[in-house]
Write a structure and sequence with these properties.
heterodimer, A: Rossmann fold, SH3 type barrels, five-stranded parallel beta sheet, 22 helices, 12 strands, about 45% helix, globular, B: alpha/beta, 3 domains, eight-stranded mixed beta sheet, 13 helices, binds adenosine-5'-triphosphate, binds magnesium ion
Amino acid sequence: MPPSIHPVDLISALRQKHLTPAIVFLTSRRACDEAMEAFDHANCVLPTTRQEAIAKALEQVMARHPSIAEHPLISIVQRIGVAAHHAGHLPTWKIAIEELMRQGHLDAVFATTTLAAGVDFPARTVVITQSSIRKSRDFTDLTAGEVQQIAGRAGRRGKDHVGFAVITPSPYIDLSVLTKGLTGQPEAIDSQFTISYPMVLNLLKAHPHEHIQGILAKSFAQFQLNQRADVLEQKLDALHIKMEPFGPRVCTDWITQWHTFDHARRHRHTRHPTYRAEPPEISARLPFLTPGRVVGFSRGRGIVLRQYRSKGQRNSMLTVLRPENAVTECPVTSVKELYDHIYDCPETSAYPWCSTDTFDRLSHQLDELPLRLPLLPILVSSNSEPLPDAIVQSLEDFSCPTCPSRSACQKDFLTASRLRQEQQRHTKSIQALRTSLWHRFQERVEVLQKFGYLTLTTQLTAEGEWARLIRIDHSLLITELIRAEAFTGADPSLLAGILASLAHDDDRPGAFPRISPGLSSLLGQVRKLAESLSPYEDPPLLRADVAALVERWVADQTITWIGLCRLTTMAEGDIYRLLARSLEYLSQVQTLKGTHPGLAESASQAITAIRRGVLEELP
Amino acid sequence: MFHEKDMTTDELEQLLAQQPVAVLHRLARGRVQRHFRAGKRRLIELLLQHSSQNRAGFESDLLTLIGERQAPSPSGASRNPGTPPIAHKRVAIRSSDLEPSEPPISLSEWLQGIGVPTPQPFVQDPWQIEALAAVSETDVVISVPTGSGKTYVAIEAAGRAMADNRSVIYTSPLKALSNTKYAEFSKIFGADKVGILTGDRQENGQAPLLVMTTEILRNLLYDAASGEIDVRLDTLGLVILDESQYLADPERGVVWEETIIFCPSQARLLLLSASIGNPQDIADWLTSIRATPCRLVRHSKRTVPLRAGYLHPNGRLTPLFRTLGIPQGHPGHLHPEAKHLFIEYEEETLPSGRPRR
Ligand SMILES: Nc1ncnc2c1ncn2[C@@H]1O[C@H](COP(=O)(O)OP(=O)(O)OP(=O)(O)O)[C@@H](O)[C@H]1O
Ligand SMILES: [Mg+2]
């Protein structure tokens, strides 16, 4: 048996059961194209009347968008009534297919799932062949929301009594992802708020510094952080009640007092260990690395079982439960992420530092963790409190041995100090949750001050005034390039080429068209600067081939679209998107006419040069 | 188990009465003010009153909640109530929840009813009426399944705002969708009434209804805040954010937040989204930062019912689930034949010892 159904058989099965028109979602563009090729010699041609209807409808679209006239797929679309629709196609071709589908001329369209959202494109039946999609190099399972968006295309209002979502398996499909997606609730939206340099500049342009915190507080990010803080406040209230029996005794702070006394008593004969101070960003994390905490490493995640000090180790150590019941020891510095996710995990005195039941439960919970977890915001304060251990005191300084509440203190100490630690942890978390956005904003401000876009009093400098108009990815690199006069006197085609390499974030390989020496050396300069800026901004891919491709399109006005496509292995749709993104970047540079008239003029010439042929057909 | 037909009010009341009070409170969240004060009887009364506004949405939410209760997740204790069950390998095959006693649906029953309905005169859905009434007064978040007719609400609301001499901005996340809507709106309102803005081009930029991507609107709002206004934001009456589930997009979600934060206070916001898990949170958020309390219009019942099937590579078709419709909350209610065929498929394609990806 073949691992998945043959496209021709699929379409005839659907036709036979009157399940057409259908959208067939496949894993990749290539799978869509191969499915189309499978119809080359198939004898499932449409009756002539339908073929003619398709031809007529296509002609109408062609009148508006001449670029599709030569499309190699036209004949098969007409003959069989099936089509492919994915990001490798030109937008005009996709418009044509959508139009044919809306008018009911097609029986099936092969599409990629990335296209499921936001295209006006319903059908009677949706065929799902996979349970995961490629997201930036990796395959991830479809979310319930995605499954529902895909399946939701089935059943056209007014045209169908009922819609069908048909699953047909391909290798590696995980049926449970799909059945859960179909029957479950879509995921909750989590804020993805980030603070970018242009955001900081634009906010400070329009509002005084002291108003910004209030503006950030209006974000959905802060709304959700507040929800989490509110939960902790409630826990804190509960802890206050639990702490009532442990209020002031003979000493007001008897918990600390007992702790130091107890410590001094035990270590009477040993030399005081001197812990090398840990950097503040590490010590700020320590109170949160308690048993049950979910943490992330550079590879995979784990649950903390205990935190301890080890003689030979410079940093505090952790015992961590890793996937497949592995228990590992590692320094706290190897923890990359702390998640706002903690499981109940009462500590015990021996390996594995919790009960067997707890261990089994935790290892199951670790397997079941959702893909995305909220990070725990942690405030780093430079003056960390001294560890009580570091307070050197001699036993004679304590009145504990003769104190009337000695036995009560001894009895309650463990409970009380655990509760108090919990209180302190919650208080710190709440503070971090309430102020983390503001701290991130301040970090950005400091960088912008360092580079001279903001004054020390957070006013925009002359540089900041124009830099705020660059509101795209890699804005810092672009404004720094402008300040370094990298583009001064540069030809429009060079400018377009460089911006293209900044704008293009796809790593799908393309072939190398010949690159001009001017562009090549400028690209080298850009690469160097991008590297030096990498502590402050993620460097772009800076692909030389896409730069050369756009340079050519701008510089050589005689080259045709087909000619351009022949220079590379990139798909037409990708080349189109590359040019469209370059236009976006160029148009931002064009807004700098007030301060950089030469550069703006060069950008506007490049824009005019790019906009021809296919790129003129759509707004 | 799964209702494809609407219930009568009596049936609904009975069903509500059978539910534990915790379920009623969850249902009342966002529907009934201060529901925590009400006892069970009063709560049912209030819920029934409310349900007249959006009956379909109410029923489908109720059924979902009941479904969730009947299929408790395997490690429910540690899980936040809002988050959906996490993928667990092979759970569906193991069918963790009890199977219903009715016999599974047959293929011919499953295929019954395919066809084109006779044309009906256009009648607004109750949720569309509710949304349109609300958007004349306040911000509105719509969370309804794909293909329900959100565009109709956008068009009507835009038409009314324009008739009132106020301008309208419609944004979508994708240029392709903007182009489609630009063509659609031009046909409805006339080419002179509609414009489109992209980074480098303006077509009819002074028109009362402007289509653009959300990024372009965000930039406009920044320019307006610093005093360089391109477009008359003071006459702006309505901002429509289509596909606003993009709020959750890792790279671009922030743009939706910026747009909402800086949207002029006199303009109404209309957020259209496919079903999302926490629409009430979005509405509460808007309420907390905008001048008037935001109205949430939601339901999770599809207009055109959906059925799921399984097609084996050898061409054999069977229903995927035991029930005719999708058994909400019961991923394990697989059709025995689909289950059998799929296990066979896995055995043939996955030699033992080879990891599942
Ligand atoms: N009240 C109604 N009665 C009948 N048909 C309707 C009604 N409202 C909308 N429709 C039709 O429903 C179809 C789908 O509508 P629309 O494209 O607005 O869906 P949507 O909710 O925006 O979905 P998506 O999430 O896919 O964007 C359209 O063809 C529209 O004409
Ligand atoms: Mg829509």
